[in-house]
Task: structure prediction
Amino acid sequence: MSNKAVVSLTTGAEDLEKVTVAFLVAVGAAETGRETMMFLTQEAVRLALPGQLTGVGCPGCPSLDSLAERYLAAGGRYFVCPICVDARGLDASVLIDGAELNGTIPLWNWIGESGATSFSY
Result:
């Protein structure tokens, strides 16, 4: 059984509650010792820019910035879709800590032969 987790996220600031749920799952995986990768595509690529992981998705939910801090502290990483970044005219040179521009082939290489548990939001 694999000890890796992939959380694929397509949603950004337009649905902070969905983003929060994705981060809760990713934080849970990372904090329990799984190698964890968030694959950010579509509008979620904006979350990899400085200052974008802010806000609270629902009453009683932890803030996105606190979840992002926990995720990074637990060793979580982000692959940010380069096609999606280019399509939105974003500057990939200023990605947040733990984030790197990588598409599907690097993601499959990271998953490797053992596979990974995956979640999609």
